[in-house]
Specification:
single chain, alpha/beta, Rossmann fold
Length: about 550
């Protein structure tokens, strides 16, 4: 066999195995995946493949239908530019989270891959962006996966349908469905992307049996939806939920917990937009529809349809029907400091605050006021909403997974720096993200900037280590930093201040109170979300919460 023939045989074998092929001069790395050949770019020791379609465009007649896997493409597809973000309203204020996408389209179902150049059967982190299921995109600069990939894992970030295009339920859509359901299209996109990973990630050096789903805020909510969905079972092996919120959600046709049925919400929306049927809604321009829906009061959420989401996620976890996987979950001490829109107006006086709490919480009022006293109403209100939305959820997740026999790890992010303190945003919502991704230099324009100091870099290195090691083996560890204890029976957790500090018994009384409150609301068919504290409905009497 000649040298030329040997080179051809070697290249053919690499292609068959899905390994990276030698790049031609001036070109990036090429992989041969079942989906088709892709040419990416090199970033240091990491190969990056951008804007890879995982599903067919959900436009025209395909709007509000489950995603269909993208067809295999011919030739070598360039994967050097990020795909457009899914349609979303453009932020109109200088929010710290404002990071408008460079491009948007209804044809947006793409993903991005960061893989070590020498990856072989590497564990995979599957990242789901936040944004209240209304905004965000997988290629935000803060989510650059290079630093994590340098730790020996493959990172995948995705786009999924948002807002009314991603979560609308409607009687006519249900009638079109073979399953008789509608809504949850954004969640189905996430599941289809996981299926793409299962079929294709080995071509990038990833292990399809070692996928960790991970997300923050609405991404954390999505992680819980995936843990609760039978359609996602077997597509992931671990889970990370940062600042997730286990709120009640509309059911498809039945009014429960004070929530209007999802199909009725869709019908009302159509009427308010002068679109009497689905054909008229499909005829609307996607951008116009995306911008108009929030003005009607439409809020995208998952729908309990008995199929994709069999029941309320709190009920799923109570029954032990969630995915039995290890979990890492936590929340931030200052969640609400950057989300003051979630707070009701402050009462006129401490006495008015206490009176409102006693009226609403009845026999639980003393316990409530011990945790959230009238002596500092502003801080108590912030802590109340933080704990109900995020603190209770994080501890509930690790408690339920521990009960299911899975290693579970809890954290509290309580780190701050001068720029955050100047804005009264100590430990604000999402502030752990650039530390987790190692992207302190790539935060959005109005984001409080962490100083370029050795201490901040050291903390970020520890966070990248903890997250990547959990993805690798289900146990968070960091070089030169304390071991992270499992929650176990002692309620242990990691507190991130100036550095990581193993601790125990997080916020004594917080979880027990909020668990009791949610139990009573559920027994009395009341919703549970940000309607807490002085705007809580009057709680039902004591219920059996075992």
């Amino acid at each position: 066999m000649s040298m030329f023939q040997r080179l051809l045989a070697c290249a053919a074998a690499a292609a068959c195995l899905g390994l990276a092929l030698p790049a031609s001069a001036g070109q990036g790395p090429v992989v041969q995946a079942p989906a088709g050949a892709l040419q990416g770019v090199t970033d240091g020791s990491v190969r990056v493949f951008k804007g890879v379609p995982y599903a067919q465009p959900p436009v025209g007649a395909q709007r509000w239908r489950p995603p269909v896997a993208a067809a295999k493409w011919p030739g070598v597809r360039p994967a050097t530019q990020f795909g457009p973000a899914c349609l979303q309203p453009i932020p109109r204020t200088a929010s710290i989270y404002a990071d408008p996408p460079p491009a948007m389209s209804e044809d947006c179902l793409s993903l991005n891959v960061w893989a070590p150049a020498d990856a072989r059967n590497a564990p995979v982190m599957f990242w789901i962006h936040g944004g209240a299921l209304v905004g965000g995109y997988g290629s935000e600069s803060i989510f650059d996966g290079r630093k994590l990939a340098e730790r020996g894992i493959v990172v995948v970030s995705i786009n999924y349908r948002l807002g009314v295009l991603g979560y609308l339920a409607h009687p006519q859509l249900s009638a079109e469905s073979p399953q008789g359901v509608s809504g949850n299209y954004g969640l189905l996109d996430q599941i289809e992307a996981l299926r793409w990973v299962k079929r294709n990630i080995s071509a990038f050096g990833g292990d399809p049996s070692q996928v960790t789903i991970a997300g923050e805020s609405a991404g954390g909510l999505s992680v819980m939806y995936l843990m609760a969905s039978p359609q996602a079972r077997g597509l992931f092996a671990r889970a990370i939920a940062e600042s997730a919120y286990m709120i009640s959600t509309p059911e498809l046709r039945k009014r429960r917990f004070g929530e209007t049925p999802a199909e009725a919400i869709g019908s009302t929306l159509g009427g308010m937009l002068h679109a009497p049927d689905i054909a008229a809604l499909r005829a609307m321009d996607g951008r116009d529809l995306t911008n108009a829906a929030p003005a009607t009061g439409y809020i995208p959420l998952g729908t309990v349809d008995g199929k994709i989401l069999p029941r309320q996620i709190a009920e799923t976890f109570d029954r032990g029907e969630q995915a039995p996987v290890p979990i890492l979950a936590g929340f931030n001490s200052g969640e609400i400091r950057s989300l003051l829109v979630l707070l009701p107006p402050q009462p006129a006086s401490p006495a008015a605050y206490e009176a409102a709490i006693r009226e609403r919480y009845g026999d639980l009022a003393d316990r409530f006021l011990a945790l959230y006293p009238a002596s500092d109403v502003k801080e108590s209100m912030r802590a109340t909403t933080r704990d109900m939305l995020y603190g209770w959820t994080a501890e509930r997740l690790v408690r339920r997974q521990t009960k299911a026999g899975q290693p579970s790890y809890l954290y509290l992010w309580d780190h701050s720096f001068p720029a955050a303190e100047a804005k009264d945003m100590h430990g604000f919502h999402g502030s752990e993200l650039p530390f987790v991704f190692g992207t302190l230099d790539r935060t959005p324009p109005y984001w409080p900037k962490a100083p370029e100091t050795e201490a901040e870099a050291r903390l970020s290195d520890a966070m990248v280590d903890y997250w990547s090691s959990f993805v690798k083996a289900g146990r968070p560890q960091a070089s030169g930093a304390p071991d992270w204890p499992a929650f176990g029976g002692e309620g242990r957790y990691m507190r991130f201040e100036d550095g990581p500090k193993p601790s125990a018994d997080l916020m004594p009384g917080m979880y027990a109170l909020n668990e009791e409150v949610v139990c009573r609301r559920a027994s009395g068919e009341q919703a549970w979300n940000w309607n807490v504290g002085i705007v809580s409905p009057k709680l039902p009497p004591k219920a059996d919460c075992n």
